[in-house]
Structures are given as structure tokens and as C-alpha cells.
Design brief:
By secondary structure, this protein is α/β, with parallel strands linked by helices. The chain is built from ten helices and eleven strands. It folds into two domains: 2-91 and 219-286, D-Maltodextrin-Binding Protein, domain 2 (3-Layer(aba) Sandwich); 94-210, D-Maltodextrin-Binding Protein, domain 2, CATH 3.40.190. The protein is globular, with a radius of gyration of 19 Å.
């Protein structure tokens, strides 16, 4: 079984997915091989799986980009309908982080600094045009009335060296990618986009606490199969994921990776994606034309 991840090895999607894949392999008695295919704002991975034989042996790890790309990418060679939802298995928060050397200690300080650096404007690291974190950053910047230019990277890991060194002024990244760096003092966490503070970063206030109540963005992880995959295969996979993420030891592993088990079966997952699509359509319209 090949499971394609649209981001580089070592990123949040990779770490969280492998926790579940290892248990799937044991439960179903067959290997689950994670294969990273980053690039083109996740479109390479999505297209590759969409064109695969619908026999249940090729899966895609999906995320919010699955609901976003149709509004920000005109050249993609796949459509959401070309992939069938299997199950959602986890969620993780997103955190706005800045270099440890930054002269400000809170979000208000960053806002004031960004306004003072308008010519040329500051830059921020983006994991991809339609990535959840790019969209979350633009939600915040729009609400704050800031002009900060995105610098596009292929996923989160390549951003981190430039962020630590101060080449970019900030980034919004999944908690799984930055918690250890915050705890070690290499980055400062200024805000979380969750509804409440993260369990592993309780000192970081939410966007809502700091005056941005509409900037709530949670990253999710799910599985999709090529359209036409037999329903009984999808059902078996979904049922297996449900059982796995209910295990206390799996939940503990996800928590250690700054994620939480969040199962949705095939039908509920499909409805959840529709809700996501409606939300991101409006956000994408507001940033149309911004590279």
C-alpha cells in the first residue's frame, strides 16, 4: 500500500501520518509505505493519486489544501471529484512564529514593527500558495491591515532555517513543526490559530485573545483514494482508522506530535470538506492576485 504525502519528509503531515500508518500496517497485516511527493502546492501528489488504479493500494494524505486549491490554482490537472474521501484522522493547530532575535515579544509588537517597515515591506515564509498556513497568514494580515509579502517554499521544513536566521520576518506553521524550536528558544511563538491554547504551548495566546477573533484555522489530516475505488475497500480502511485513533497509545503519540485524534467517517468527512470549501472560497477571493 502506497500512501502519498504532499509535503517533505519531516513535516507535520509526514510525522502525524506515520503514526497512523504504522498502526494500519499492524492492523491490516500489510505494509503501508509513505511516499513524499512535494511541490506545485500539493498538486503533484494529488494528480499522481488521482491517476492511480482505484484498487485500494494507493492513497493520498489530504489536508485543507484539498479544499483550497481549486480556488487558487488554475493549472492543476486534478479535481476534488477525482478523489474519494476515506476518513479524517487528526487535527493540529497552527502557530505564528518569528525569529528568536526579533525585537518584539508579542503579536502587537509584530504588527507595529510590520507597519513601520512598509517600504519595502517585510516578508513571511509560506509553505505553498494554497497551503493552510498561507491562508491563515493572509487571514491575520488582512484583519490586521498589514502588507507583508509571501515567499513561497515547498512545504514547512525549508522555511525553518530562513526563519531562524531572520531572512523572513515570520511564518504560520503547524504546531508539530515548531513546538520543539519554540521550547528550545530558536523561535518565538506569538499566537496560535486554535480555538484554545495548545496543550504543549500553553504560554502562547490565541489570535482571538489578541483581538483577531476570525483568525481561527486548524489543519486537518485525512485519507483520499482514487475515484472509483470499491466502497467495501474504503469502508474497511475507514473502519480501521476509526479503531486505530481510538487507542490511548495512538492518541498519546499524536499528542506528543502536537496533534489530536479527530476521526470522521467517509460521509462525515465529505460533508466536512464541503464546509471547508465554502470557507476558503471567500478567503481566496480576498487574496486573488497576490503571489
Amino acid at each position: 500500500m502506497t500512501v502519498v504525502i504532499a509535503y517533505p519528509a519531516g513535516g507535520a503531515a509526514d510525522v502525524v501520518t506515520r503514526i497512523v500508518l504504522n498502526e494500519l500496517a499492524r492492523t491490516l497485516g500489510q505494509p503501508f509505505i509513505a511516499e513524499s511527493k512535494p511541490g506545485a502546492n500539493s498538486n503533484i501528489a494529488a494528480e499522481w493519486v488521482a491517476r492511480a488504479k482505484p484498487d485500494g493500494y494507493t492513497l493520498l494524505v489530504s489536508g485543507p489544501w484539498f479544499a483550497i486549491n481549486q480556488y487558487v490554482e488554475t493549472g492543476r490537472r486534478w479535481e476534488p471529484a477525482s478523489l474519494a474521501p476515506v476518513a479524517r484522522f487528526a487535527l493540529t493547530d497552527n502557530v505564528l512564529v518569528v525569529p528568536a532575535s526579533a525585537p518584539y515579544q508579542n503579536l502587537a509588537g509584530y504588527v507595529a514593527f510590520a507597519r513601520s517597515q512598509s517600504n519595502p515591506p517585510l516578508q513571511y515564509g509560506s509553505p505553498g500558495t494554497g497551503s493552510t498556513q498561507r491562508m491563515a497568514a493572509e487571514l491575520f494580515l488582512g484583519q490586521a491591515g498589514l502588507d507583508v509579502e509571501p515567499v513561497q517554499y515547498k512545504g514547512a521544513p525549508p522555511i525553518i532555517p530562513d526563519l531562524v536566521s531572520g531572512r523572513v520576518s515570520m511564518a504560520v506553521l503547524a504546531a508539530a513543526n515548531v513546538t520543539a524550536l519554540i521550547q528550545s528558544g530558536k523561535l518565538k511563538g506569538l499566537a496560535t490559530f486554535g480555538e484554545k491554547r495548545g496543550s504543549n504551548t500553553p504560554a502562547i495566546p490565541t489570535m482571538t485573545e489578541q483581538g483577531y477573533p476570525k483568525a481561527i484555522v486548524t489543519s486537518w489530516f485525512g485519507l483520499h483514494a482514487p475515484a472509483g475505488t470499491p466502497p467495501e475497500i474504503i469502508r474497511r480502511l475507514s473502519d480501521s482508522v476509526r479503531e486505530i485513533v481510538s487507542r490511548p497509545e495512538v492518541q498519546a503519540s499524536l499528542s506528543a506530535a502536537d496533534a489530536q485524534a479527530a476521526f470522521l467517517d467517509t460521509q462525515d468527512f465529505a460533508q466536512y470538506i464541503q464546509t471547508e470549501q465554502a470557507m476558503w472560497k471567500d478567503v481566496a477571493a480576498n487574496i486573488e492576485g497576490k503571489k
